[in-house]
Specification:
There is one protein chain. This protein is α/β, with parallel strands linked by helices. About 30% of the residues lie in helices and about 25% in strands. It contains 12 helices and 16 strands. The strands form 3 sheets. A 9-stranded mixed beta sheet has the order 11-10-9-8-12-6-13-16-15, sandwiched between helices. Helix 10 links the parallel strand 10 and strand 11. The longest helix has 16 residues. It starts with a helix and ends with a strand.
């Protein structure tokens, strides 16, 4: 197998892995391609809720043709017993001759031991091909392990001057249908979508994915609501039994009201307040990470966005901009977050710019991430 062949098959494994983004938490999204004599004999990716794993799926499809094949895996195969046996055992038992892994798994239960076990069994092992791409793909999983928080993507849909509504609150719709559809695609690729109480109260959203064919990929819905003011008749609460709704609130909220929310199917996560009295954004992310979430999409409002930017907790920025201006009296997408010197600005590097109908879709990554 040539180096170009290895790269081509690893790229295929990474493409398969992306299919799992948003649906496999708390596990990483992994892709696996099995190749024998230059022909793909099996492929798989992590299934919803994290099981079965990519390697197992690929081996099932390959059957006896896995004997002597090369396994291209976007992440080191697991080496521990959980709800299923280790993938290393399955690869060895199937007679795989070689394993090409994009990068090691930082999970302490794996962390190099999976690759060591394959080598000990006589397999040829190569590590590091497309490592940067693989690490970026599962950045949220890595962040949860290393920093006790998920990856945070801030999505904005604004006018050219960064406004999300007029001064009277009218916001539907600034961006067009294409931009809104692609925004729903972002929802499908994240574990959860989060808004502040202000947005939930003003817009009464559903926060589900409504793209045809992807309705089942709706993320967990999260509301940052310090004082548990969310209306019990809101669309979010009324649909809590159909689509998960988690509310981050202070520990000292009225317990009788909290009990009613729980009876409605809402999961309450108590988070200590910061100096302003609202829930601490970093602690809220930690609480979500402890629940297994790895990728959070922030869709509003300005206070929540400002708080996350102030604490340097925004990793990705997805900005849809419509070719219009609202003016300085419009509602800003991001509230003030204490920048009084230019060296305190939140800085991002541009990853790409695309046309979304009449609008622009700009993607950024935090510069010091």
């Amino acid at each position: 197998m040539t180096a170009s062949d290895d790269t081509r098959f690893m790229d295929a494994a990474l493409a398969l892995a992306r299919r799992g983004l948003g649906s496999v938490w708390p596990n990483p999204a992994v892709g696996c391609v099995l190749v024998r004599d230059g022909v793909v004999v099996g492929r798989g990716w992590t299934q919803p809720s994290g099981r079965p794993h990519a390697e197992t799926e690929a081996l099932v499809r390959a059957g006896l043709q896995a004997q002597g094949a090369t396994a291209y895996v976007s992440l080191e195969p697991c080496n521990h017993h959980g709800r299923t046996p280790p993938c290393t055992e399955a690869l060895i038992a199937a007679g795989i001759a070689r394993c090409v892994a994009a990068c090691e798994d930082p999970d302490p239960r794996v962390s190099g031991t999976g690759l060591a076990r394959l080598r000990a069994a006589g397999l040829a092992v190569t590590v590091g091909l497309r490592a940067a791409e693989a690490q970026a793909l599962n950045h949220g999983f890595f962040l949860r392990l290393a920093r006790d928080r998920p990856l945070v993507t801030l999505k904005l849909a604004t006018s050219l001057d960064g406004r999300v509504a007029t001064h009277r609150g009218q916001s539907q719709w600034i961006t067009g249908e294409t931009a809104r559809a692609w925004g729903h695609g972002l929802r499908a690729s994240h574990d959860a979508i989060m808004v502040g109480y202000g947005t939930a109260h003003a817009d009464d959203p559903e926060l589900t994915c409504r793209l045809p064919g992807l309705e089942g990929r709706s993320p967990v819905r999260v509301v940052a609501d310090s004082h548990l003011r969310l209306s019990l008749t809101s669309r979010l609460v009324r649909s809590a039994h159909q689509a998960p709704l988690w509310v981050c609130c202070r520990p000292d909220v009225d317990q009788a009201r909290a009990q009613v929310f729980e009876q409605c199917g809402v999961t309450l996560l108590t988070v200590a307040p910061d100096s302003s009295g609202t829930i601490d954004a970093r602690l809220a992310l930690s609480a979500l990470a402890k629940r297994g979430l790895t990728r959070i999409l922030i869709e509003g409002g300005g206070q929540l966005a400002g708080s996350l930017l102030h604490q340097q907790l925004v990793d990705r920025l997805e900005w849809f901009r419509a070719p219009c201006l609202i003016g300085g009296d419009g509602i800003a997408a991001v509230a003030a977050f204490g920048v009084d010197r230019l060296d305190l600005m939140a800085r991002f590097d541009c990853l790409g710019i695309r046309r979304a109908g009449e609008d622009l879709w700009e993607s950024f990554v935090r510069r010091d991430a």
